[in-house]
What we know:
The complex is a heterodimer of chains A (117) and B (112).
Chain A: E1 4-7, E2 10-13, E3 18-25, E4 31-37, E5 44-50, E6 53-57, E7 64-70, E8 73-79, E9 87-94, E10 107-108, E11 112-116
Parallel strand pairs in A: 2-11
Antiparallel strand pairs in A: 1-3, 3-8, 4-5, 4-9, 5-6, 7-8, 9-10, 9-11
Chain B: E1 4-5, E2 11-14, E3 19-25, E4 33-38, E5 45-50, E6 54-58, E7 61-66, E8 71-76, E9 85-92, E10 100-102, E11 106-111
Parallel strand pairs in B: 2-11
Antiparallel strand pairs in B: 1-3, 3-8, 4-5, 4-9, 6-7, 7-8, 9-10, 9-11
Amino acid sequence: xxxxxxxxxxxxxxxxxxxxxxxxxxxxxxxxxxxxxxxxxxxxxxxxxxxxxxxxxxxxxxxxxxxxxxxxxxxxxxxxxxxxxxxxxxxxxxxxxxxxxxxxxxxxxxxxxxxxx
Amino acid sequence: xxxxxxxxxxxxxxxxxxxxxxxxxxxxxxxxxxxxxxxxxxxxxxxxxxxxxxxxxxxxxxxxxxxxxxxxxxxxxxxxxxxxxxxxxxxxxxxxxxxxxxxxxxxxxxxx
Lengths: 117, 112
């Protein structure tokens, strides 16, 4: 699979579990993003990494912990989540940490559907 | 609190008709605007980007921007059943190079 890949595609976890979501981009991009998409709510930016440095933490609870070991990989570590955290988690990448031009668009991965019991 | 408003739909149009999708935004200083298409169970993909007042055309798609009215729209000409999807309007936050505020999306259904 090319572009932006995410694993797992589906995840069910209890509130006391610890799990991680993985994102990998094969596009040579320098910026990566985590988004949350809940039913009936707008797509919401969570974190942004540019050149492996976190440049945005959009007031996300500490039970979500991102990690970007290199420009191709992005993780979202999850612990002690709540049922309201159930959502589709989307990873995206862009050539640079700037999308002011339509040429520098974000490419989204297929998402991980997370259910917290 | 920045807001981007869209009618949730569903908007239903017959095949071959023009579909008109509308979006309003609250921050008058916003400069860049995006339309994404999201098929059911899939991830969003960018279809149009606009930053100047007026119309921007790309194939069957036309984006229209009116900054004075804080209004951006997407027209789809000769609508096809394959255009059936949720269309997300997104606005780049003023002063940011990468932070988008999204609307909830409008579900479009094109009937054969």
